[in-house]
Write a structure and sequence with these properties.
Elements (H helix, E strand, L loop, with lengths): L2 E5 L2 E3 L5 E8 L8 E6 L6 E6 L6 E3 L7 E6 L4 E6 L8 E7 L10 H6 L6 E2 L3 E5 L2
Parallel strand pairs: 2-11
Antiparallel strand pairs: 1-3, 3-8, 4-5, 4-9, 5-6, 7-8, 9-10, 9-11
Length: 132
């Protein structure tokens, strides 16, 4: 049974960096479509960054482009989100989503992140708070 677990959140100051980790357990392969999403209080869930299965393309939300980097270690079934130059508006619960059944193998990275409902498997989330 597939299981997704995020870690690495915390309280940091503006300008600091954090690296979030996402462990994918029970996945048969390490190169499935994946995504990082976030949800701030009172706001809708936002797709932060996604990697497609089809071509390995990546997508970043405009608000994080140039500051965040998504990566994966297929051998370890791990996904990472390196977040640099954090801002107070990055404060949110961050969720990792993945596709253990490989059903999303033909969906592009932008669609994975911007059109809701693609991912059926989610982690519990990790809190990131950016405050001085």
């Amino acid at each position: 049974q597939a299981h997704i677990a995020e870690s690495g959140g915390g309280l940091v100051q503006p300008g600091d960096s954090l690296r979030l980790s996402c462990e994918l357990s029970g996945f048969r392969s390490g190169d499935n479509a994946i995504g990082w999403f976030r949800q701030a209080p009172g706001k809708e869930r936002e797709g932060v960054s996604c990697i497609s299965k089809s071509d390995g393309d990546t997508y970043y939300a405009t608000s994080v482009k140039g500051r965040f980097t998504i990566s994966r270690d297929n051998a370890k079934n791990m996904v990472y989100l390196q977040m640099n130059n954090l801002k107070p508006e990055d404060t949110a619960v961050y969720y990792c989503a993945a596709d253990p059944r490989n059903a999303l193998r033909f969906v592009s990275a932008p669609r994975l992140c911007t059109i809701g409902g693609y991912f059926a498997d989610w982690g519990q989330g990790t809190q990131v708070t950016v405050s001085s």
